[in-house]
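Subject: Interface between my chains keeps coming out wrong

I've been trying for a while to get a sensible model of this assembly. When I model each chain on its own everything looks fine, but I need the whole thing in one frame so I can look at the contacts. Pasting all components below, labels as-is. Any help appreciated, I'm running out of ideas.
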Amino acid sequence: MSEAAPQKAQASGCPFSGSAAAEPVSLLSPRAMSCPYGVYKQLRSEEPVKYLPDQNIWIVTRYDDVEYVLENPERFSAKESPSSTNAYRAFPEALAILAQSRAVPRARTLMLADLPHHTRYRTTAQRALAPARTLKEFSPKLRTIVDELIDGFCESGRAEIVGALSIPLPMALVAHIFQVSPDWISKLKGWSDSFFAALSGSVGEKEVIKAAHDTLEFENFILDRIAERRQTPVDDFLGRLIAQPEGEEKLTDPEIVNICSQILVGGNESSINMLSNLIYLIATTEGLQQKLQADPARIPALVEESLRMEPPLQAMYRITRHEEDFNGVKVPPNSKLMLNFGSANRDETYYQDGESFDLDRDNRETIHLAFGRGIHACAGQALARKEAVFTIEKVIARLPNLRLSTDLPPERAPLFGVRGFRTLNVEFDPTPRMAPAVNQ
Amino acid sequence: MPKVKVDMNLCEFHGQCVFVAPKHFRFVGDDLQYDELISDEDRQLVEKAAKACPQLAIKVSD
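Reply #2:
Try treating it as a single job with all components included. I did that and got this:
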């Protein structure tokens, strides 16, 4: 992922609807940043596995190839899966800060781990995260939070959705997972943004040094809470993370910290963009709001179709262990692959008219790759889906005639590989606040 | 006939199998129920459901 100047003029729409652009492939051009799907389509038809010398990366754009890589973790390493570069490596000062850590040597778990170690991390983290149980405990509260957030702006008839809804909702769930009061949300979000910027690579020294400081703060936050739970066991995410069953190797402090940082970032970054993308879709698709008002049972289908068309995380990375042959394209060992979910999810081999939004599409036929696939598939996808459904149910019910703001155009997220918005201003017919029930 | 086995220690009730193959997987109350034996022609669909499982809890064997 690389930085690019935020685009104002054409930042809002992605009008691409099918005809491949006849120009050289440039993923980082302003146009491609605003709407990458034309470039993807061209790549799928002309060079589905293409080497990009400037980035030293092979971009993989067809569904079959992306799926093959995801399903063969023994052939493709995930150790640098979230980024194209390691941001810390370039800055000695940042490395010196990290050297003061209490949780060293640093561990690479979950999405940064390969088999066979990955299995232990994934099993433990998934058991601790316990999505089904978390939803059972927290769903009523989550619904109330959506109402409270909407109460904050519904009477005015306008809102900046990213700040008013897309960020605070997933962060409320993250705060619940770490069992801290909502006062912690801005702190947690600050850490998460800092880690994400460093993970995404191509950021400057200042950001990387801040990320190193934040890493130490976050470690202390986690290790202090872990210490409490070692004294007095608690049955929550952190408690379950350290409560290994008899006979299983306990996680070390560096492993715990690394798992927690992935849960922190994974729990908000993509959810935020998922929610903004959904609301953008509703605000810009003629007749969609009426359809959903008439039949709210179709909201889950909307969520799947939005994830297919606009996966918030457009790509993940893998490294080849052996020479690979993708239909005649030979990729040497130790090459970095960019697995492009945004492209695979529109592959014409599987999706008829895949460039178009279709609420009636049967997404069971070919399951989209927005959450990945295989051993590294998103651990929180059930949580993400519920966040989306709860939010959209309330948006549909409480923000009638939702549309983009006429004077403040949406601004796209400025990072390549992230599909979402930095700001999303909308207008709607003002509605009264709800009187939120106290004991819901 | 192909056999289906769901590891209920792993299952987290994401419901992706029910979404993909509703004839073979269903929620009954708080429980997941599924067909332990499937026909050869349904194997591909059930394997698709197994792939969709975020927990990798579903195994299809001969």
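Reply #3:
Confirming on my end. The CA atoms of residues 143 and 390 of chain A lie 6 Å apart.
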